[in-house]
Recover the amino acids of this structure.
């Protein structure tokens, strides 16, 4: 029995399951890494999604929950799409890609991208829709 538990534990770490953990709180000016040199499987569901974050409000007198997203591929990703998704409830089917939040290009020299969001959301995550080259990605959210 002990060997089976150890094997299951090892398999869990070898094959990451995105969104398996509760949302991580991201307050104003706080940076949270949601992918760390990972190669998520492109798609539509949880295997393609990053760690989700719970957004703190912008403070008294501020409307919305602004945040920014920064990403860096380890090499040229080829044709790709990373969607920034938001939700009011932390369930996989509640996340929707926000308007103009489909990232499809990177800086050609550094393979980086940046996006600023100024809407209202309680939760956010990234979704790897497609990627032609198998390169890793590191991505962060910064609360606004």
């Amino acid at each position: 029995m002990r060997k089976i538990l150890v094997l299951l534990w090892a398999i869990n770490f070898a094959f990451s399951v995105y969104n398996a953990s509760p949302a991580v709180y991201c307050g104003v000016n706080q940076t949270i890494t949601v992918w760390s040199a990972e190669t998520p499987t492109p798609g539509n569901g949880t295997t393609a999604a990053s760690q989700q974050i719970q957004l703190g409000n912008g403070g008294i007198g501020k409307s919305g929950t602004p945040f920014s997203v920064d990403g860096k591929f380890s090499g040229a990703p080829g044709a790709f799409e990373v969607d920034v998704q938001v939700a009011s409830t932390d369930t996989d089917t509640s996340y929707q890609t926000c308007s103009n939040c489909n990232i499809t290009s990177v800086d050609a020299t550094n393979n980086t991208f940046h996006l600023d969001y100024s809407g209202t959301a309680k939760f956010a995550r990234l979704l790897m829709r497609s990627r032609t080259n198998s390169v890793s990605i590191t991505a962060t959210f910064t609360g606004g």
Summary: The first helix runs from residue 2 to 14.
